[in-house]
Design a protein that fits this description.
Helix content is about 40%, strand content about 20%. It is α/β, with parallel strands linked by helices. It has one domain: 3-Layer(aba) Sandwich (Glutaredoxin), CATH 3.40.30. Strands 1-3-2-4-5 form a five-stranded mixed sheet, sandwiched between helices. The radius of gyration is 13 Å and the shape is globular. The termini are far apart. About 40% of the residues are buried.
Length: about 130
């Protein structure tokens, strides 16, 4: 499940320091809180992959794995406040500020295509 994102260029963040360093970069950063959840994550990961076939895409791609890399996941979620912790989830940051969030309840019951379209709209607004 990790490789589904890392093989397409996502950098896996394994510590709170790595999250802080990653999200201090200028430009846009996509952070996927990955999950073993069968139904929601099964649509989230393909949606993220598909969304990157867009003219505008984030400068940086990062992932943390909920339930596995607790320290990194907690640090990433702290930067997603006021949204409550959820996994899977997808957050877009611009210059370290959260600008778009897709929570688990936006993923459940939706197709990968619909989730990807949501992300592409955000990419068109904030990336590029």
């Amino acid at each position: 499940m990790k490789e589904e994102l890392t093989t397409i260029g996502f950098q896996e963040l394994l510590s709170s320091d790595a999250v802080d360093t990653a999200l201090s970069k200028s430009g846009t950063s996509l952070v996927v809180v990955n999950s073993v959840c069968g139904c929601a994550a099964a649509n989230a990961r393909p949606a993220v992959r598909f969304s990157l076939n867009n003219e505008n895409t984030p400068d940086h791609l990062f992932t943390v794995f909920a339930g596995v890399d607790r320290e990194a996941t907690d640090a990433a979620r702290a930067k997603m406040i006021p949204f409550p912790p959820s996994s899977p989830s997808v957050a877009l940051f611009k210059d370290g500020e959260l600008v778009h969030m897709i929570e688990r309840h936006h993923i459940e019951g939706r197709t990968a295509q619909l989730i990807a379209e949501n992300l592409m709209e955000a990419f068109n607004e904030f990336c590029g």
